[in-house]
Design a protein that fits this description.
The chain is α+β, with helices and mostly antiparallel strands. Helix content is 49%, strand content 20%. It is built from ten helices and nine strands. It has a seven-stranded antiparallel sheet, with helices on both faces. A two-stranded antiparallel ribbon has the order 1-2.
């Protein structure tokens, strides 16, 4: 028995000496760089990160229009800041993977979540362009979908686990500082910018209401002046939007006709902005079974640029015309909107002549 034990010990020593039992190597960044390679889908992911970060930084500058931010450069700086943060985190992600840093996967997830949230926010807020260009609704939807795909890839991929093993992964304090900056700084900028914009707009409204000289049948909401057509009654109420100061909304009506009029401090004359206003003022109560766009034009009246649209709704009860216009005072970042329905069900009035609407548009003045 003793001899058997001695023979086993000798056999064990022989196996160790022969290299059969090798020590597990210490996993370090240098070791992973020597024993792993970046390829396949991981290469595609890092390429997408670099390209996406570059586009995110360039796009807000290339398409910069201060009118879209209500004339606030402070508000516009949020988009520029987030764009450059995407570029920075994108470069940091590529560097971390190439150098096999323990925080590589965590940094990559920060980037994917940031892009996902930005795309989702754009999708929810709406007003996106049609088509397939950068910034279009199609591209934003694709961005949201790819965000989910890439996040799941980082979690499930065997290649990612090979290049940055789970036991090797860790996070740095710097990574959390990035998250803090991404969340807190934009919130601070937005809060300050919105507070300043609201305060300035409220002051401008109050000043105009106090000092403007109104003619017969004229009214003002503190941004513009309009004239009520003959035989129309007129009343107004204060409305508080989700964001912003209270605005004065006028309602004028006559048999078979009802219209809402209000103004805003907004110098954006783009079709995209026009559609945002249209969608926000659409009244489904007057919508019929089907509809068609029967008129859409833009031009100038009394020195003010305008866009005018007419949509016809119809069903078995009759036809309704929805007339919608934006009149712009671009030099002073102002606009007035008119949303009117005529010929709505339950009345004898049939849609057709729009003299009253032209009277409203022609009577708008901003000074």
């Amino acid at each position: 028995m003793e001899e058997y034990r001695i023979n086993l010990e000798k056999a064990g020593e022989a196996e160790v000496n022969s290299g059969y039992y090798e020590e597990t190597p210490e996993i370090t960044s240098e070791y992973l760089k020597q024993t792993t390679s970046i390829g396949g889908w991981l290469s595609l992911f890092l390429f997408a990160v670099g390209l996406g970060g570059l586009v995110s930084a360039i796009y807000p500058i290339a398409t910069f229009d201060i009118a879209e931010y209500g004339g606030s450069y402070l508000l516009a700086s949020c988009d520029v800041f987030l764009g450059f943060m995407c570029l920075f985190i994108g470069i940091y992600t590529i560097y971390s993977f190439v150098q096999r840093k323990p925080n590589a996967v965590f940094v990559a997830k920060i980037y994917v979540v940031l892009i996902f949230v930005m795309n989702l926010t754009n999708l929810i807020t709406g007003g996106l362009e049609t088509g397939n260009g950068i910034g279009s609704a199609n591209q934003v939807v694709k961005g949201v979908i790819w965000g989910v795909i890439w996040y799941l890839y980082l979690i499930k991929s065997k290649k990612v686990a090979e290049v940055i093993p789970h036991d090797f992964r860790s996070r740095k304090s710097f990574d959390y500082y990035i998250i803090v900056v991404l969340v807190i700084l934009p919130v601070i900028i937005l809060t300050v910018a919105l507070h300043k914009a609201f305060a300035d707009n409220e002051s401008r409204r109050a000043e105009m209401i106090e000092n403007v000289v109104l003619g017969p049948d004229e009214h003002t909401d503190g941004v513009a002046v309009f004239r009520v057509p003959d035989y129309f009654s007129c009343e107004w109420e204060e409305v508080e939007p989700v964001l912003g100061n209270k605005i004065r909304v006028y309602t004028i009506d006559a048999p078979g006709i009802i219209a809402n009029i209000c103004s805003d401090f907004d110098g954006d004359t783009s079709y995209k902005n026009f559609k945002e206003y249209v969608d926000s003022w659409r009244n489904d109560e007057f919508a019929g079974d089907s509809s068609e766009l029967v008129f859409d034009e833009e031009g100038e009246i009394n020195g003010n640029q305008y866009r005018y649209m007419v949509t016809r709704y119809y069903d078995e009860e009759g036809e309704v015309a929805w007339r919608y216009a934006l009149v712009y005072d671009k030099d002073n970042d102002k606009l007035t909107l008119i949303s009117a329905y005529d010929g709505y069900p339950g009345t004898d009035y049939k849609w057709g002549p729009d003299d009253y609407f032209h009277t409203l548009v022609e009577g708008i003045r901003f000074r």
